[in-house]
Amino acid sequence: MADVLTEATQVRVLRFTVGVGLAVFLAAWLEWDLAHIAPVLTAKFLVDKPALHRETVIELLLAMLVTIGLGMLLSGGITQYPIPLMMLIGLMMMWGYYLFTNPKWNLFATILILAILVLPFIAITSATASGFLAGGLTMSGVVAITLFALAHIYFPEPEAEFPGFAPVMLTPHQRWRAAFRALLISFPVVCFFFVFQISEAILTMIFIALLSLMITGEKSVKLSAFLVVSNGLGGLLAIGSFTVLAIVPNIGFYTLFTALLAMVMATKIYTAGEKAPVYVTAFSTLLVLIGSTLLSSGDIDSTTITRIVQLVVVGLYMIVAAYFLETRTWKFLQPN
């Protein structure tokens, strides 16, 4: 395979493999709260930000600071007032969706949405736990940023100068409209989970919230079907991975095996062209399933099946929600 790859592609594959492998090792070794998020963030940073520049690091550090601030805010008692809490979450989610449409702030928005969902959800039952999870999420972010930087330092891109962020393709009106449509899809689910405190399926809520913005434009039903396929592929890879990992259940083998998967998937990501998002989403799903299962207590088989079922539910909900929005003629949902 290496002989058909360009030198630049080989560097990117190696950078991705080393970065994700180290993140997996540190998460399994240190096992801090939400440690399994670190490999997912590392993979996302390496794919979404192909070069290391000061502006990228500043964006990611700001996201970590906001996470800490949210943890402190939620630990202060706002969760005692459900209606203001849900209004605040809804407004912050919409702001996060708006920022997500700007390439300069999409990673910041991802971490923001993740924080405003997980931390309040936990803070309702335990403000102290919310503080610990804020620290854990921040730790995962710091580890991901550090590995992202180190991977780029040791395996740099040939470009020396920062070319600037990609331009925003939408007008402010279109960005707010997309943000509002995403909120229409995700917020009912978020409210449902918060009201009934369904902690066992929090992964479903997070996936729906993070993926909602993807299906606010044209061909949203097709994009929803794409999510089902890519998440299904990630689930199948996870099942196969658990079978292999059960043979040699130790950190070293877990790290090397995941790094091997990262190398294979990175090769697909950097050579598949338009199909690359399928492999990106599938690998993210794989990391979430493996990390959240192996680094938590309980029976692996039942936990894996439960999480895969949750992902199927996510995909089905996305298809139904996308079809519903596409068939509406409400004036406030129209482009103009």
UniProtKB/TrEMBL annotation:
Keyword terms, alphabetized: Membrane, Transmembrane, Transmembrane helix
InterPro entries given in the database record: DUF2955
Transmembrane annotation, as ranges: 12-30, 81-100, 106-125, 132-155, 178-211, 278-296, 308-325
The keyword rRNA-binding belongs to this UniProt entry's keyword annotation: no
Keyword Cell cycle: no
Protein name: DUF2955 domain-containing protein
Annotated source species: Photobacterium atrarenae
